[in-house]
Amino acid sequence: MDPIFEPIRFRNLTVKNRVFRSNISGRFDNYDGSGSPVRINWELKFARGGVGAIISSFVPVSIRGRIVPGYATIHRDEAVPYWRELGRRVHEHDCGFILQLSHAGRQRDIGGIEYVTALSSTNRREPLHGFECQRMTRPEIEETVHAFAQGARRAREAGLDGVELHAANGYLFTQFLSSAINDREDDYGGPIANRARFLLDVIRAIRREVGRDFHLQVKISVTEHNNAVLPWEGKGNTAEDSLRVCKWLEAAGVDAIHVSTGSLFPHPRNPAGDFPVEELAKTYDTMASNGRYALRNLLIFRTPPLDQFFRWWWEHNRGTQIEGLNLPEARAVKRAVGIPVLCTGGFQTASIIRQAIATGDCDAVSIARPLVANNDLVELFRAGHDRAPRPCTYCNKCLVNVIENPLGCYEERRFPSREEMVRQVMSVYDPAFPAHAVSGDGGT
Question: Does some domain include residue 24?
């Protein structure tokens, strides 16, 4: 049997194939965190396209933990009916749905009106954009642990297939795990065992709340490369550090590890590809008032030759490999733990995915941008294609547009015309729903 289409069996979950839609979404929802029908349309694109399971986009467990307003949250019980309906619609296509429980910490692109200052492991502002933050007190840590456990309970009550903790890419868990970010001197800082304490506290709280028969996986940046953009910053956690953490995660009751990289988002190695500075110059103004250094960045992106130097520096620190660049770390995690390992990193070639699975580098792959470019990529694999006829170019224009515009593929070269590109981007609003189709409190 083709390894791509062999079911993968976790402790509490079976998924029909080895391709997961990775966490990616646009600002499709309401300011208060209630979900909209547009997000359901978005997820159904991939369920119909044949992926085994969808890992939701970043779903905050509290309003203070948002990256930006306009993403559906799971911070209150009123959200359960919405997520139940979304899960039901996805399940109609024999596709699983795993909710990614998340908290931005200091990495908030647009903080919103509710909370001026973000929470983090540290008082130091985020160094690239200059987002302000305050070091969490022990009561705030305990409150956040409780919020994650309640988010998991709500996901289970909604009939979803499991949850993923987003402990990668610079968000709150990374801010505790990272040796380059966490400067605490209490039980949550210092050696790696202390820096992992917050994440392990959350896992134990989730298991107490939902039991051990509900799927729980963790996404982690195995190597942080924290100084890839700003070379004066510390390097952050190494693979050796993260392998110790992965062993502790398994012992605490985690069912799978999802391998990523980078201690901020975006990062030269995640999502690896081009740095479309001309496109970013059109949209970054949305963030210009949100961070101490954001206006400086905007001027760089709009000023030759600084813009091209920044682009060169970004792509230089990316390296030459894009597809499968995290497989060496995934292989190391596979050797260290006895639970399944998922790997993300630009996958869109069937032969590369097959080889990664067959050789034991990972048990499954997660894909974001190539599935945005070709929602039916899995069905193309099934039909015998090694790659889509019009593959993802890794241009990352989808990434830099999402802060202001609907998420979709913005690479005009992939379309017969700009009008066709726009039609594809706007297709997420079709079918249209009446205003009452999904109510603000998550009801249907």
Answer: yes
